[in-house]
Write a structure and sequence with these properties.
The complex is a heterodimer of chains A (371) and B (104). Chain A is built from 17 helices and 12 strands. In chain A, the strands form 3 sheets. In chain A, strands 7-8-9-10-11-12 form a 6-stranded parallel beta sheet. In chain A, strands 1-5-6 form a 3-stranded parallel beta sheet. Chain B is mainly beta and 104 residues long. Chain B has 1 helix and 8 strands. The longest helix of chain B has 4 residues. The chains are: A alpha/beta (371), B mainly beta (104).
Chain lengths: 371, 104
């Protein structure tokens, strides 16, 4: 028996909960966009280029060029780097090994689809993903739910795509965390929110999208970029939706942050209410409920390894928390999710664990929970 | 006017099994806009192609083998795009291109 087989066996033996990873990724086929995007966009898609000095660069329209270095992975790092493809037999085996019953699948290279400031380019890239992903995972749709990707800057085009992917059978809509120069609290988006509400599909805001998270450089750059330019911006759409009247006007709209952790959530809910009440003379619009009430009614936050956030659940509750393993990324918990769950959730009640690990996600994304 | 282009795709030692895959497309505008692909295959080939009207050059890209280059970016192996190769002004009939010569 191999290590992974024995680990799978052990994981299944101790498995007590229906577990949904609300944050997984797939390595798209190597030539997905090169082959399927309209030819006029092909020379603009993310790529590697080699300069006159032989240095290689990741080139993404709308992002700073990034030097590419070959990294020699070993052990589980190598295993993670080689995992996460769309080969369903391998993928489902990896889910089993980590005790995962179902997953919500995000792009990998496709996380850069919103980098270009050109909405037509964004839309073209999103359509390629949407045309591919649902079909690729259709044979395992009871376990694998790829997200549909939407480029919101051109609002009418976005509405058309929302309606198209809803008819195709997608179960969630992935919008970028930020749209530079066109923030989500603009009433111009109302037709889009109305269209999304009509589909009944939730919105997902996965970190690191819409604006280049690699903003800082030099000392501390990697940490600054992760904390401040990747994770922290995910708070913005939460506040925009809860405080600007979007949730009040569209009470059936549901939304989640993905991979942003939850340690900030209790503070965010309190800060929204504090701002709303103490700055009442500046606040517009006046809302029927406090901003935090709208989050509790319509919002969710996805985390992977966040002891602090779980300890703050007395302020937040657990009905709005989703767990994910970020498979196969290096900062994720695969293939040791059960160890992380045991370490971080030991103080949760059985009912709290059931909700956080699977039942909340099953309800949001439409997975069938075994009786 | 260029009627045909012959391309040496190089790198026979990479094929097969650990091959690099090449794709070639037409360049249809001076800003690098691409048209249709005209070739997909491994290195180690020399191929000749009729050039459609309006084409001003070729664009070549290559991929590493499946598990090669996985650590290059946070998002895995990606296409390597070579800057567009524009046909020389006044070139006639056949243009010869060496893919390896275009690689730096």
């Amino acid at each position: 028996m191999t290590t992974s087989e024995s680990q799978t066996s052990a994981t299944q033996a101790k498995k007590k909960y229906f577990v949904v990873s609300s944050d997984c990724h797939v390595h798209e086929p190597l030539d997905l966009w090169e082959r399927h995007i309209e030819p006029k966009f092909r020379h603009r898609i993310p790529r590697l280029e080699t300069d006159a000095n032989g240095k290689r660069w990741l080139v993404v329209e709308g992002m700073r060029r990034t030097r590419v270095r070959d990294v020699a992975f070993e052990g589980e790092d190598l295993e993670r780097a080689q995992s996460g493809r769309a080969d369903l037999a391998v993928r489902l085996r990896d889910l089993d090994r980590d005790g995962i019953d179902a997953e919500v699948i995000y792009p990998n290279r496709g996380l850069m689809m919103w980098a270009s400031p050109d909405p037509t380019h964004q839309t073209a890239m999103c359509k390629v993903w949407n045309d591919w992903a649902l079909t690729a995972f259709a044979p395992a749709k009871h376990r694998c739910a790829p997200v549909a990707t939407i480029a919101p800057k051109d609002i009418q085009t976005a509405i058309n795509e929302v309606q198209r992917v809803a008819k195709m059978g997608y179960r969630t809509l992935f919008l970028p965390v930020q749209v530079p120069d066109q923030p989500y609290n603009s009433p111009a988006y109302d037709p889009l929110w109305a269209a999304i509400q009509d589909t009944g599909l939730p919105i997902s805001f996965h970190i690191g999208t819409g604006k280049d998270p690699r903003t800082a450089s030099g000392d501390g750059g990697a940490v600054i970029n992760y904390v401040w330019h990747a994770v922290a911006p995910a708070i913005e759409p939460i506040v925009q939706f809860c405080a600007s009247g979007i949730c009040e006007r569209f009470p059936k709209l549901r939304f989640s942050t993905v991979e942003a952790g939850i340690g900030w959530l209790a503070w965010c809910l309190a800060a929204m209410d504090e701002g709303y009440t103490k700055h009442h003379f500046w606040v517009s619009p006046k809302l029927a409920m406090l901003p935090s009430d709208y989050f509790r009614r319509q919002g969710y936050a996805t985390f992977q390894d966040d002891q602090i956030g779980l300890e703050a659940r007395k302020w937040v509750g657990v009905d709005n928390l989703l767990w994910g393993d970020d498979y196969p990324h290096h900062e994720g918990t695969w293939p040791r999710s059960q160890e992380v769950i045991d370490r971080t959730m030991k103080d949760l009640t059985e009912e709290e664990r059931r909700k956080v690990l699977g039942l909340n996600a099953a309800k949001l994304y439409g997975f069938e929970v075994p009786a | 006017m260029v009627k045909t282009v012959t391309i040496d795709w190089g790198e026979a030692h990479k094929a097969p099994g650990n091959r690099k895959r090449w794709m070639g497309s037409w360049v249809v505008a001076r800003d690098g806009e691409e048209g249709d692909y005209f070739y997909e295959g491994p290195g180690g080939q020399v191929t000749t192609h009729a050039v459609p009207p309006g084409v001003v050059g070729v664009c070549l890209r290559w991929w590493p083998a499946e598990n090669e280059g996985i650590g290059q970016t946070q998002v895995g192996a990606m296409a390597n795009l070579i800057a567009p190769h524009f046909f020389p002004e006044g070139a006639e009939d056949t243009v010869n291109v060496s893919a390896l010569a275009l690689l730096r």
